[in-house]
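The record is kept unedited without comment:

——
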Amino acid sequence: MDIDPDRLDWAHLRSFLATAETASLSGAARKLGLTQPTLSRQIAALEQNLSVLLFERVGRGLELTDAGRELLAHVREMGNAAQKVALTAAAQRSDISGEVRITASDIYASHFLPKIVSEVRNRAPGLSIEIVATNDISDLMRREADIAIRNVRPEQPDLVARLVRHGRGRFYAATNYLNKRGRPKSLTDLAQHDWVAFGDPDRNVEYMNGLGIPLTREAYKTRSESGIVAWEMARTGLGVCAMDEIIGDQTDGMERVLEDLKIDFPIWLVTHREVHTSPRIRLVFDILAEAIAAN
């Protein structure tokens, strides 16, 4: 699709992007803080300027046309560029200073956050960052942290949550362990192996049973509340352990077991509603969202 830049209005493109992402005029209007008639007029104006139909109504929802899908890829790039411009500008403001506390699981805090915090410090040198590595669900309402990275969406109405990406976990065991015990060929085989528990073994059993792995509590010969410690025990050959595939695949001496077996999990970024009024928290929140989504 050939697009003449002189015919584009960013406000209209933002309305198109929000509508494409929500598949709803009302949802897009809420996201942008516009009235639905205003948003509809902006979409219509964009279609008129480009001489193409961007959406088709299907039932109560909207679906992109072929032209709309082609345009969406370009507009997403523009949106990402605009976001980076806003973050860069905010970081250069002299009043962006003070401390921001980020809480995440010990695994996430040790393997992923240091690099992201380095990016925060590069963009906003006036900020100081504290990482609170804990596997407990820290109470943001009691100011134990400013921003939390979690795998469960919070239910408190005073918190703001953004789903930034979906992660994927796999099951791993040390090569020396598998050489001795054999490599499982089925879920039943897998259940006969020793396991390393991260957290409560009973909850682990319940979750694994839900995946079709017929584990019992007796399978968990070792356990730890620390994800880092549990992973290190698995690395020494104490049994099978679940891990984010980004970490597991990069760990020497560890092998995936049952290649097709996987765990999909959400990654939520959570903060107080004051993210809308606190420049430093909003800046760090947006940088975290950008970095985690790109991971």
